[in-house]
Inverse folding.
């Protein structure tokens, strides 16, 4: 990498008033600092040209070799032309600012400094993803082939620029500037030397506020500590090697499924810990008196009934009183020595608050992941450039196994051919009858899909009613019969959820969509619709209690048990699906059909199964506080089973799969129908449903929400000073006007964002035109230079 | 394993891991003690035999872009540079700069048609026909070239990369 000594520019930050952003039209204001340098450079270049012309006059045959063996623009295709000014033109062109990126240290620093100047004025940490390149070459540095005296001056200037930054930003800038490690280290050394000289310290640090400097030091120290901690966490990540193995063999697309699984695991562990600390552990320390514990048979793991009914797993176990209450004295009046520390713990309040807090925290975490993921995958701009992106970004550098690398080459080759064919097809579109046929096929396929969804829902409804009748009948039968009847409905629902996606795949094969991307979206839509509609029906049945759990006294425990059974059945069917879908299919392909092809890992279907399982957990948290623990166990087992099956039985997907885009889609799907639906269900239960009379923490109340109202009233009575606290639930939560106001604000924000995006589209188009115009300018100038040389040649 | 090094801005655990890998490639040459800044460079042949790079079609270009002398021999600092740029912690702009260097086969700071053809041949192991390669090269330049000079400068390349959200995850080697 050749490096030329440079002169860097001091960007005087006080040329513009604070707060006024430099705009593309305001060239004059920014150029004032560069005028001198432009003059210097132009005089130097003119001097060089003069010198060369004189030399040519002395040695007409000598041709100065061009600095790089290249053709400059399309204007000089004739290599054999011994143009006298050709070499000089090449040298001038090679010194142009746009061609010297990455060549010199001062240049890089100065460029980076200029770019982040605006953001640093806002004193916020510049994120490189938000920076936009300016098309103007005036803000880039001017590269000069100058003597060493200039270079030391340049270094000093760049160092002074760096010193003028606050230390936090300086270290951040050194981290992210694209220089090699050795240069960064030498820069740091020089900076620390310079800092030790007191003269410069007074110049650089702000003399009027030593506490600002202290603050900077503290922030820097905290940030360094945080980075070290993150790095430690990063290397101590669970499954680091396993994920590397999977990425190495199958690439980023299959890896995204496992990363999604890991994210769900973390969410569940968080909810579980919250519930454990505030609800479960305390209730376990103060167990209520249970009538007669039933004997343990192994079937409880499957059905969740039997001896598990009166356990920490379900709602009915939790007491509705204040635990460890010091005011509850024994009725006989015998004096028991008062315990030193007796902290009362209001169990119903803790229950409802913890569930609310876990939902709220999950909501915030999900919204943050969506925001993060959207930032990576969405951009404002045109959608052209698919082929270029495929050539430069499709090769997954993580893939290291020879067979997978070969497969990846073949995939990219196929995709490039498909893209070329698609572009050829686009130039000759389909005729009218073909299009009509295509549209009718699409309509038919959608009608069929919606019809099957409706059919499944009706089937589930009638089946659950039938099972209810059977349950009444089997109450007199053996334990096995009873448990069997309980498991029937989850079995049928899981069976439908497993078989229907295959049917939809067949439908998609008949339909033959235009692009593979659209195929994936349509498949996801149909599967999601089926799952959510069936879950909606089940939620309605649970809350109305007309069919399921109608005979039970403690209906919440019954609903909790039902959800537990659904989670367990879902896990069993996932295992069966992996076994039959992947293992058996591979054996069939190998032994019977004797083909080398292995089954592909269907990413969309597997992710939707994960989303479905997570929805069940969120629905059931209110009725079975330990359900997140069950889900954690299930996800852990699922990771290892899926990984083993993947390694043994599958091959990497051959269709193109935009990993980061699809990850955003999946997290959005997890948030929008899945989490929000569960949140609505739980909110409705807390708000409007009457809890059962005989069991659970909310016995005897009208609604679960009443606990909060009672508590607020108690607070008011005990301490009249905080009467304002009761204002919050009354006016904010129960008043509908506040909710309307919030909705209005959200809609206004969305509307503004849409307009901002439109404006950005327009600016991008204008900037692209400007770049094209500047290319034209360059060509014009080169032509002029050549004509000047020719003229001089003629005259000489 | 005693490791004495000057502390850089990277996290030391990562650097220690890289030092372990660098050392095991040539245990007789690479010292354990780096405080005296020894001038040790490993040749390209050793580096491209690393399991993470062995099957990569661009392995020579990757090593050349990070080497100081352009020949492909990496000192330890260059080695750390390489794997930190290719890690998931590096910012997008840094990755774009080095990706541009990697795909620029003739090191003229431009990705011209010849560079594109070489890239395509390496990507597809020469499975595409000559006509298809020409077509793809023309289309790529048409799509990405903004100032109309017939080849891709760094600005064009970076603009195109910004439209590809997958770039950060594909231009990533796990070590």
């Amino acid at each position: 990498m050749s490096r030329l000594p440079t002169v860097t520019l001091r960007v005087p930050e006080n040329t513009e008033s604070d707060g006024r952003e430099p705009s593309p039209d305001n060239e004059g204001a920014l150029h004032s600092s560069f005028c001198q340098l432009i003059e210097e450079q132009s005089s130097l270049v003119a001097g060089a040209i003069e010198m060369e012309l004189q030399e040519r006059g002395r040695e007409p045959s000598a041709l100065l070799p061009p600095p790089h063996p290249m053709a400059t623009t399309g204007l000089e295709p004739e290599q054999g032309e011994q143009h006298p000014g050709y070499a000089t033109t090449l040298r001038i062109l090679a010194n142009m600012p746009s061609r010297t990126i990455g060549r010199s240290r001062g240049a890089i620093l100065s460029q980076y400094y200029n770019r982040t100047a605006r953001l640093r004025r806002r004193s916020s940490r510049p994120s490189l993803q938000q920076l936009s390149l300016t098309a103007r070459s005036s803000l880039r540095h001017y590269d000069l082939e100058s003597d060493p005296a200039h270079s030391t001056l340049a270094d000093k200037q760049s160092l002074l620029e760096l010193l003028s930054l606050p230390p936090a930003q300086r270290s951040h800038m050194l981290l992210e500037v694209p220089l090699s490690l050795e240069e960064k280290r030498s820069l740091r050394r020089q900076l620390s030397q310079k800092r030790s000289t007191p003269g410069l310290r007074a110049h650089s640090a702000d003399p009027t506020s030593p506490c600002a400097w202290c603050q900077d030091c503290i922030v820097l120290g905290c940030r360094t500590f945080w980075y070290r901690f993150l790095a430690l966490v990063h290397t101590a990540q669970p499954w680091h090697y396993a994920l590397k193995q999977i990425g190495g063999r199958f690439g980023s697309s299959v890896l995204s499924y496992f990363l999604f699984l890991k994210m769900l695991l973390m969410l569940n562990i968080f909810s579980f810990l919250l519930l454990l600390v505030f609800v479960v552990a305390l209730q376990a320390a103060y167990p209520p008196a249970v009538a007669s514990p039933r004997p343990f048979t192994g079937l409880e793991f499957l059905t969740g009934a039997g001896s598990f009914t009166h356990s920490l797993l379900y709602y009915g176990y939790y007491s509705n009183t204040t635990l460890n209450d010091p005011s509850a004295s024994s009725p006989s009046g015998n004096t028991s020595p008062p315990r030193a520390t007796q902290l009362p713990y209001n169990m119903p309040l803790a229950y409802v608050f913890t569930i609310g807090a876990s939902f709220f925290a999950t909501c915030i975490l999900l919204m943050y992941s969506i925001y993060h993921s959207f930032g990576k995958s969405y951009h404002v701009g045109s959608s052209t450039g698919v082929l270029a992106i495929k050539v430069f970004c499709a090769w997954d550098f993580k893939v290291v196994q020879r067979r997978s690398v070969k497969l990846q080459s073949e995939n990219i080759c196929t995709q490039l051919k498909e893209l070329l064919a698609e572009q050829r097809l686009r130039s000759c579109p389909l005729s009218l009858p073909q299009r009509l046929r295509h549209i009718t096929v699409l309509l038919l396929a959608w009608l069929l899909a919606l019809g099957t969804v409706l059919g499944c829902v009706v089937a589930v409804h009638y089946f659950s009613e039938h099972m209810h009748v059977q349950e009444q009948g089997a109450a007199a039968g053996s334990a096995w019969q009873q448990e069997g009847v309980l498991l029937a409905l989850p079995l049928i629902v899981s069976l439908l959820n497993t078989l229907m996606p295959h049917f939809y795949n067949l439908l998609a094969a008949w339909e033959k969509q235009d692009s593979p991307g659209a195929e994936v979206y349509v498949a996801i839509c149909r599967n999601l619709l089926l799952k959510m509609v069936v879950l909606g029906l089940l939620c309605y049945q649970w809350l109305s209690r007309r069919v399921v759990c109608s005979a039970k006294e403690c209906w919440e425990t019954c609903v909790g048990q039902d959800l537990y059974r659904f989670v367990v059945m879902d896990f069993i069917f996932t295992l069966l699906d992996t076994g039959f879908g992947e293992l058996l299919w591979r054996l069939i392909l190998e032994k019977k059909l004797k083909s080398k092809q292995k089954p592909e890992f269907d990413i969309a279907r597997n992710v939707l199964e994960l989303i479905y399982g997570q929805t069940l957990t969120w629905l059931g948290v209110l009725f079975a506080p330990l359900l997140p623990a069950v889900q954690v166990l299930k996800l852990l087992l699922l990771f290892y089973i899926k990984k083993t099956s993947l390694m043994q039985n599958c091959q990497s997907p051959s269709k193109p799969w935009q990993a980061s885009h699809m990850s955003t889609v999946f997290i959005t799907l997890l948030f929008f129908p899945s989490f929000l639906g569960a949140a609505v269900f739980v909110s409705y239960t807390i708000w409007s449903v009457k809890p059962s009379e005989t069991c659970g923490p909310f016995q005897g109340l009208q609604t679960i929400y009443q606990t909060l109202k009672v508590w607020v009233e108690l607070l008011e009575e005990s301490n009249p000073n905080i009467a304002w606290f009761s204002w919050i639930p009354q006016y904010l939560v129960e008043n509908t006007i506040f909710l309307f106001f919030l909705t209005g604000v959200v809609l206004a924000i969305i509307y503004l964002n849409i307009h901002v995006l439109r404006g950005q589209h327009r600016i991008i188009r204008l900037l692209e035109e400007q770049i094209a115009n500047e290319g034209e300018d360059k060509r014009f100038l080169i032509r002029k230079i050549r004509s000047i040389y020719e003229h001089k040649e003629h005259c000489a | 394993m005693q490791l004495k090094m000057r502390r850089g801005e990277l996290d030391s655990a990562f650097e220690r891991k890289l030092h372990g890998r660098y050392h095991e490639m040539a245990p007789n040459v690479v010292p354990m003690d780096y405080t005296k800044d020894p001038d040790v460079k490993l040749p390209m042949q050793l580096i491209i035999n690393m399991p993470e790079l062995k099957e990569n079609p661009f392995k020579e270009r990757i090593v050349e872009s990070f080497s100081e002398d352009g020949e492909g021999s990496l000192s330890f600092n260059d080695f750390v540079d390489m794997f930190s740029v290719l890690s998931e912690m590096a910012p997008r702009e840094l990755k774009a700069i080095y990706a541009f260097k990697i795909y620029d086969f003739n090191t003229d700071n431009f990705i011209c048609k010849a560079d594109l053809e070489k890239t395509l041949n390496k990507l597809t192991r020469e499975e595409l026909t000559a006509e298809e390669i020409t077509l793809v090269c023309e289309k790529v330049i048409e799509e990405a070239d903004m100032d109309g000079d017939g080849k891709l400068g760094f600005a064009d390349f970076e603009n195109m990369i910004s439209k590809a959200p997958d770039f950060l995850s594909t231009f990533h080697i796990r070590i």
About this structure: Chain B touches chain A through 80 residues (CB under 8 Å). Confidence is low (pLDDT under 50) at residues 1-10 of chain B. The first strand of chain B starts at residue 41 and ends at 42. The longest helix of chain B spans residues 130-144.
